[in-house]
Amino acid sequence: MTVNPLSNSNKEEPFNPWHFVWISILASEILTALLNTLQSFIWFGHFSPHLVMIGAIDGLFVPLIIAPVIIFFIRRTDELQRINGQLQTEITNRQHAEQALAQTENHLRTLINAITESEFLIDAEGKFLIANETTAFRLGKSTEELKGKCLYDYIPSEVAGLSVKKTNEVIHTGMPAYFEDHRSGRYFDNSVYPIRDPQGNITTLAILEKDITERKRADEERERLILDHLNAITRINKLNGLLPICSSCKKIRDDEGYWTQLEAYISEHSDTTFTHSLCPECAAKTYAELDAMRKERNNREDSS
User: Fold this and answer.
1) What distance in Å separates the CA atoms of residue 186 and residue 194, rounded to the nearest whole number?
2) Is this prediction's pTM over 0.70?
3) Which site among 36, 81, 172, 244 is 20 to 30 Å from 280 CA-CA?
4) Tens digits of per-residue pLDDT, 1-58?
5) What CA–CA distance (Å, rounded) separates 41 from 47?
6) Using DSSP, how many helices (H) and how many strands (E) does the chain show?
């Protein structure tokens, strides 16, 4: 690598205030010697070494008295400039940090608002630090209105008590907790996660609430269908096996030994309801008997 020999010569040397003292003393001595020499010729008509010596002493003391004052102000000015430069650097760094923090907060808010379920951060006392739009909508507030407010003021007391119990459990154990709650006709599945500060203390809790109402209703409907199916199977099993039935009147003997009409027995042991009618064969037989009875009655009336 080539070194530029002029690079050091162009470097600005720091100002040494004592150079100013020596230069001012030298200039004062020379000027005083010239003036006092001129004055000695004017007063005495010849050179006076005593007058030159007195002037030299005066020229020495004046810079020695004034120079420290000037040096103090010069150094004070340099110190103030240095402090001002540090302050400007700190202000610039803080502005950059605030911009980075604002950008990070914006990214975080965008991330939590992308989730369609309730997600929010609370402190150990239950106060909102940040909440997404779904949380605000479900609580009937805006995200800005929720900031600094207590979560437990917006939910039923029994749910608030369960939430306090679970959040305290997370703070003491350091492990996530999960629980379900029911409010305003809806079911929610809650997940509580601990967030530690740089010292390792749990000061913030992240909570995710999922609306599981539809899943709950589907589970209840499935359980109802299963129960209905089991009841149907039970009723069907009651009609299985051998049934004692009268070969003449078709009555059925139950388990207690009583004879019951076929229709009554089946209706009692199932959901079947009977309606009565005549099949074609029975209808023809019945109508023939009715015609015979009507003809016999007409014949008796004619003979009388």
Assistant:
1) 26
2) no
3) 244
4) 444 544 444 555 555 656 656 666 666 666 666 766 666 666 666 666 665 666 666 6
5) 6
6) 8, 7
